[in-house]
Amino acid sequence: MLLLVGYVIILAASVGTYAVHGSLAALWVPMEYLAIFGLMVGGFVAGNGSKAVKATLAALPSVLKGSPYNKAYYVDILAMLFEILAKVRKEGLMSIENDIENPEASPIFSKYPTFLHDHHAVEFLTDYLRMMVGGNLNAFEIENLMDIELETHHHEAHVPAHVMSKTADGVPAFGIVVAVMGVVNVMGSVGQPPAVLGKMIGGALVGTFLGILLSYGFVAPIASQLEQKSEEAGKIYQCMKVVLLASMNGYAPQVAVEFGRKVLYSTDRPQFKELEEEIKNRKSK
Asked: 85, 107, 211, 268: which sits with the fewest CB atoms below 10 Å from its CB?
């Protein structure tokens, strides 16, 4: 939503202020718009592999949605992790085998539909719980494996933002290309009256204007939004990582969950008392 608000402000500050002393009709050069858009799409397709193109197209709708990663979401995750670890501490690791093999039917996981909807997070958690149940790896080995997996996830999650950033970098140059094409057209019409030539030169300069405006005003903000969302999405994995490792190192569920709480962003992190009360309330139900 903020992206659209930003777009309105950008258009008001550029086209709106121009309209006060100029004619908006002078900016309407359809072929310039078509050329720049075509060059931008062509550069996007030519500069990326099919995986990057698909990932970017799939990620674009997310820039218009609000972030699901808020305090309430993290309280749910930490409460869920506490419940799992408390069951392990009370009944043993084998007691959660059915939960991790079929999370959708698990009495624990089914309480948290928002988490279940995030298939990557569910897979991450259940995979490492399965390793803990197997009992063949120590905390150091699992931590190393987690770091490698999170690095891979981080790289993949940042692909759409990187692609859009590179696309934004190229659009001003495409605007120059379109402007030069317009100037070449003007050079072929030097015999025309000054009024006609002036209109043609103005149309050519629209290409430069559009290239810069599209790049910094429209495409670059999308890249920034995608980057921020990928960073937000990665925090839940760090949270689960430190909670599981703390549990493997022998800490009680209450302490392990506190490890996870401390890695969250300050804007989304519940207070210690707040989380403690929430877990107590859920245990009493």
From this structure: 107
Which structure tokens are listed for 264? 């969250």
How far is residue 188's CA from residue 204's CA, in Å, rounded to a whole number?
A: 13
Q: Residue 56: is it exposed, middle or buried by C-beta count within 10 angstroms (0-12/13-18/19+)? A: buried
pLDDT of residue 184: 78
Ranges of H-type helices in the chain: 2-11, 17-21, 30-46, 50-59, 71-91, 97-101, 113-117, 119-134, 139-157, 159-187, 194-214, 220-248, 253-262, 272-284
Query: Comparing C-alpha atoms, which of 127, 118, 3 is closest to residue 68?
Result: 118
Q: Match 């994995």 to its residue by tokens.
A: 237
Chain centroid offset of residue 92 CA: 37
Give yes or no for a contact between 183 and 9, defined as CB atoms under 8 angstroms apart.
Answer: no
Q: Which residue ranges of the chain lie beneath pLDDT 50?
A: none
Q: State residue 285's pLDDT score.
A: 60
pTM of the entire predicted model: 0.83
Tokens 């000054």, residue?
194
Q: Which residue shows structure tokens 């050069």?
A: 29
CB 185 within 8 A of CB 196: no
Query: Which residue, chain included where needed, has tokens 């258009």?
Result: 11
- Alpha-carbon gap, residue 76 to 78, rounded angstroms: 6
pLDDT value of position 243 = 95
Query: What letter represents residue 178's amino acid?
Result: V
Q: pLDDT value at position 162?
A: 95
In whole angstroms, what is the distance from residue 80 CA to residue 232 CA?
19
Report the SS3 class of residue 281: helix
Residues 51/155, Cβ–Cβ less than 8 Å: no
